[in-house]
Structure formats: structure tokens, C-alpha cells
Here is the input.
Amino acid sequence: MKTLTTIVLAFAVIMAALGVAPVTYAADGPNLLVNPGFEAPYAKQCCHTSTAFPPNTPIDEVQVAFGWRGWWLEPRFPDFPPTCDGCMSWHRPEWREAAPFANRIHSGGNAQKYFTFFSTHKAGMYQQVSGVQPGQRLRFSVYIQAWSANGSSLSSTIPDNDLAMKVGIDPTGGTDAFSSRVVWSNPFNSFDVWGLYTVEAVAQSSAVTVFTHTQPRWGMEHNDFYVDDASLVVVGGSSAPAPTTAPTVAPTTAPAVVIVPTTAPTAAPTAAPSSISYTVQRGDTLRGIGRKFNVSVADILRLNSISNPNRIFPGQVLRIPASGSSAPAPTSAGPAPTLLPPTNLTSYTVQRGDTLRSIARKFGTTASAIIAVNPGINPNVIFPGQVLNLPFNNVGTGKTYVVQRGDTLRKIATRFNTTTAVLQQLNSLADPNKIFVGQTLIVP
Here is the structure.
């Protein structure tokens, strides 16, 4: 035991010398968080605040794991400009699941990913937990890693991009990440490896809220963050039974820069049914896969957070619910997402230098047609990172190309007079360097 203690202390000294936060080991008591592993289901977060959208419209670009919510600084002029010349722009991040990229998952089948493109942000995740007892000392721990790069490198290339990675607890249970009541940990950066972020605070009410926080210094092409394996445990103070209810959201007034839930789940989540993995083969359809495993297409869509049932591709790994079981519908602090029909519009993320006219030329449509499917858009003001609907469905209307030996996404983009970014958008490719022989790509 003495030898083990010596090794642990020596390791802690080495990690401190390298600038890595010390690891905090398992604490007393059960984990109070719902879905601490950020597993499926993932659901679109509610709701858009712009008058361009009907009330209670979920946000397509914000898809978070059950039990969690995203928060962010809302870009605004002049302090946090969403677009500008010669300065750094601010965007709301996009939230997605990390699967199927195993190197970005700490354990289990999934992790939460959020990112901005050629821009910076101030954002993170949060969960409110009720049923704690005032006076209890709580410890919040979570694994986070970052990818900060320009270009197609699979590892970070911007080591001086301070990311302000940290975690916090609001001991009063508030959901405002900008509140002075939040107790924050000391920040440190963790590029391409998992860092364990830990903070402690004493509960001051019957609810507490835990937060993660990131704020990149530079607006790199890729400012991506991955969050997994969180825990909230009682480590001291008065002892009280662990809460048995799902996180609830106190209806508090929050500044406009924070997205605050309007409703709350009222019951503890039930465990997701057992599932198996299936790799999509050439010629597969969701209907055919459903028949093969005796499950419904709707169950497969929900379990994999697929919005377009016509867009699956060879090599894609799907989770299939156990035969005869039904995947739970995503439950979130807002209306459940609506499954989009096969005529679902294609989306495109605006790139630097884009105009509506150039986007229309790129996809063989017209600026007026794009305006028609983006109600409320100002055709004279679009900005990098903005997500636009395009007036067609890729499936059956666009061309396809089967990847050949020696192909790269850049070569294919050149062949079809387009860009790698467009191909990524059309094919939902998280990593432009991972295409394989025989894969069918949609091309404009």
C-alpha cells in the first residue's frame, strides 16, 4: 500500500509539472446525474427565439443527449459579431453525438460533441439536479477533450489556442451559466486526450446545477469539444438520500444570451432498450433493415437520431433495438422532435465568401428558391456558420459517385467542380479524411 501511495503521489507531481489538472478519484455515494455517459437518445433542443420561426420550434443544429442541455452566448453586434471583416466572429455552436468515432468517446457507446466552424464561442452543457440537501458538499467531474485545428489534420494544430475549458456548479440550482453564483474550477486545456475536470461546492438549496464551459481564443476552422462520463456525488456535509427524480428546471428569468428551458421532464427516464450494432451494406434501406430485424423504421430513426430516413450509406453503423422492443422517444425539456418526411430539405452551412447567388450556382438552383425555403432570411446578410435550407432533397435528385481506390475527398471535389466542405455537408461526413472504397457519395 505504501508503494502504491508513493506511485500515485509521484504521478500527481509529474502531471502538475506538465500543466495537467490532477485526477480526482471516485468519491462517496451514488452518481446523482441522469445519463452521465451522454448516451442516446439525442434530441433537438427547444426552442428558437427568432420571430422567423413558429413558437416552440426545436433547433436543428442543437442535438443533445437526454438529461442535458446546451447553453451559449448568443452572438450579437457589436460585442460578439456573428460576421465581420478583419475580426473574429462568434457563433452558436452545433451540438451532435460523437458516435461512431470511437477515439472521441471515453467509454460506452457515445459522447456529446459541440463545435464552431471558423469562429469562436462561449458555451457548454448543463444539467440541473433536484433532491439534494442544503449543506451537502458535492463534487462534479467530467471528461472533456478538444480538437483545435485548421485544415484536415486529425489532431490539434493550434497549441496556443487557449480554450478556457472548465466546469462549474451553481449551488443554488440556477441555470444561468453567467451568474456570479457559479463556482468554477481552474481552467486548463486538453487537446486530443481526455482531461478530467473537477469542481466542488456546498449545496445551498434542494437543487444544484452543473456546467461545462469552453471559450476558444481563436476562431479556428475546427473548434470541437467532446464531453463524456460525468458524475455528481456527495463527498461531505449532511447525508441525505440520493435524488430519485429526473433533473427539473426551475423557471427562472435568464439573460437573453442563455437559452433556458421552458418546461421540464417530470419523471425519471427509463433505461434504453438493449440494442445491437449493424453496419449498413450496399443496397440497404431503413425499411429493409427494419424487416431484417423485425423492428420499425421509426424505432431505428429515434435510436440513431436520424432526421432524414433516405440518407444512410454503406459502412454507417446503426444501433438496432432488440427485436420486438420499441426505442424510447426522446424526452427533453421541450416538445419532442418531429421526424422529417422523405422530402426533407437539404441543409447547407454558409462558408466564408458565400453569397446566395454563389450558393445557388453551386447547387444548381436559384437565389429566389433558397429564399422561399428560408422564411425570414435577409438575402443581403448571410454569414459564415449560418445554416440554410436548400430547395431540394439530395436523394434521387442529385448525382452520386462511388469512391474508387486512391480517391480523396479533395480529388472528388475537384472532379465535380465543388469543394470538400460541400461534399461534407451533402454526405454528413464528420471527418473528411475517412472515406472508403465502394462508399457512395452524393455530389452536386
